[in-house]
Amino acid sequence: MKVDVLLGLQWGDEGKGKIVDVLTPNYDIIARFQGGPNAGHTLIFEGSKHVLHTIPSGVFHDGIMNVVGNGVVIDPCIFREEIKKLVDKGVNIEKNLLISKKAHLILPSHRLLDAASEQSKGKNKIGSTLKGIGPTYMDKTGRNGLRVGDILSPNFKEKYDKLVEKHTNILNHYDDFEYNLADLEGDWFAAIEDLKKLQFIDSEHYINNAMKANKRILAEGAQGTLLDIDFGTYPFVTSSNTVTAGTCTGLGVAPNKIEKVIGIFKAYCTRVGSGPFPTELENEDGERIRQEGKEFGATTGRPRRCGWIDLPALKYAITINGVTELSMMKADVLGCFETIKVCTHYEIDGERIDYFPFDINDVEITPIYEEVKGWNCDLTQLTNLHDAPSELLNYILYLEDQLNVPITVVSVGPDRKQTLHRKSSLNA
Ligand code: GDP
Ligand code: IMO
Ligand code: MG
Question: What residues flank ligand 1, with Cβ below 6 Å?
Answer without folding.
Answer: 8, 12-18, 39-42, 44, 293-294, 298, 329-330, 332-333, 411-414
